[in-house]
Amino acid sequence: MMNWEKLLTPGRFDPKVKQQPVENQFRSEPERDYDRIVFSAPFRNLQDKTQVFPLPDNDFVHTRLTHSLEVSSVGRTLGKTAGEFLLNKYPNLEKAQVSSSDIGAIVAAAALTHDIGNPPFGHAGETAISDFFKFHPYGQIWQREVTPEEWADLCNFEGNAQGFRMLVSKNNGLKLSFATLAAFTKYPRASQVFERDQRRRSQKKFGYYSDQAEDFRHLGEILGLEKSENGCYLRHPLAFLVEAADDICYSIIDLEDGCTLGLVTLEETIGLLAMILKDRFDPAKLETYQTQTQKLAILRAMAINQLIQETVAAFEEQEEKMLSGEFDQALTDIIPSAQALADISELSVKKIYRSKPVLEKEAAGFQVLEGLLEVFSKALNHKFYQTDLYSGQDRSILRLLPEEFPLEGWDSGVNPYQMLRILMDFISGMTDKYALNLYRRVKGIALPGA
Q: For residue 58, is pLDDT > 90?
């Protein structure tokens, strides 16, 4: 059974060092995590990455950046409140100089990074990258050069695993604290699992690629993360709070955005949020607010507050079962408002996620990412494999890669998996607008400065 003192082991992740000494700072470790994330380039790039509505024209519609900040805010409240419960239940935590604010800061920092691995154009971008290797001739051509496990990774791009890869990168990783990194990992399983347990929420997706398996083993050893029967790791309990913060925010705020854009009526939105508020919903008081924006804002705030209270209560009830691995569900699936959230999700799928503007821009995203992968993959293949086809156009294309991109040592006798991963790092790290502009230029649709 896992224990909290081990799960909150101080220190920072570094694959080269077994365990680092803890520095005395004016800021706690998770507070330093939060600051490192905020000032990092991958986090800044979220300001121009799709949340639901790709390349939004409306200032009030959320991007990945605003969404991540809101999830972090909710996560901090969840973590701090749950932390007070844990410190009362486990007095040794206070002796170990753990505070409820520290636990809130861990959840806040992990929540801040929860979408950091997502590519341009939202979930459509994940599918577009995967489909390139599955179906495009210049994607399929690499299959014979890599191992079956590596090929499976290339054909299954996963934003959560990409985020873990970015955070633990030996060159550009943020060296976050152990607990923050584990709380970030909602899906602590490898990409290759013989048979995943579909009853376990933590095995719904995978959280790290095959070449990060040793990194996660190191993290699990430090924190005492145990394994389930099929060998997958159990979730760090704070990951349940990070997941809940995300579930709460996207459910409520995507609905608010849909209403703002006219995809969902105000009456429908009020009715759904009233299901969460129950007897706290006061139609007469709501009418004292004059504008739709004001009405949505007060309802959103009250609904999120209600969901936070219900989620913390569920965490406290299930905490011991999380430590033993008996509990492995989304907390928002077992709270009193679970049905209301399910109704919001059903309507959002029908009227928001499958709305014409969203689908049209997702379709454009498929074209952009496939096009970028095609030109770069083709040029790399010609340079190292089909060398007789290596052209001046290929040379020009490769000069557009980042300066640090490794263009040496990848002859036909060398496994190109790491090179392809770095190419995917480059393209998945782009903002929506940068990807679109670069696509236009490499395809000759627009010239630089045009």
A: no
User: What tens digit of pLDDT does each residue of 176-234 get?
Assistant: 999 999 999 999 999 887 688 889 999 999 999 999 999 999 999 999 999 988 889 99
SS3 8: coil
- Residue 180: which of 331, 2, 10 has the closest Cα? 10
CA dihedral 309, 274, 294, 47 (to 10 degrees): 60
The tokens of 436 are what? 């679109």
Neighbours of 1 (CB within 10 A): 10
Q: Which amino acid is at 267?
A: E
Q: Are 11 and 22 in contact (CB under 8 A)?
A: yes
> What pTM was estimated for this model as a whole?
0.93
DSSP-based helix, strand, coil % in the chain, nearest 5: 65, 0, 35
Q: CATH topology for 4-119+153-235?
A: Hypothetical protein af1432 (1.10.3210)
331 contacts: CB under 8 Å, gap ≥ 6: 240, 241, 243, 244, 247, 311, 314, 315, 318
Domain 238-356 in CATH 3.10.20.30? The answer is no
